[in-house]
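Support reply, case 0932

Customer input (verbatim):
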Amino acid sequence: MALEVAELLAELVAELVAEVAELAPEVAELAPEMAELVAEPVAELVSESAEVAPEVAEGSMTRGALVVVEDVSEVAEVASEVADVASEVAEVTSEVADVASEVAEVASEVAEVASEVAEVASEVAEVASE
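Our regenerated output:
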């Protein structure tokens, strides 16, 4: 009997593993949506923690609620750090775009000078042939 139960459990586990493997690509596709869905409740928690902060400061909240507020505060801190990194990435991207623009401008000026040099060389060749 125990052997039959073990075999049944092994089959069930194998089926579950196969189903999870099939769902993995779908989960990967849904990851951005899931991140958006998580972001909203986190923002709400951060907002709620800001509302509760005065009560915590007064000491009128229980220890358990204080722990929740601390957890939410940590989430807010991480979210702030992520926002800071995103801001830095945007700033660096902007700087790279500025440098690329300057490089394009210099390349245009170099092309103009090269064109002028070619004209002068052509005139010199014409005078030399006379």
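We compared this against your earlier run and they match. Two observations from our side: The mean pLDDT is 69. The chain is about 95% helix and 0% strand. Please reopen the case if you see a mismatch on your end.
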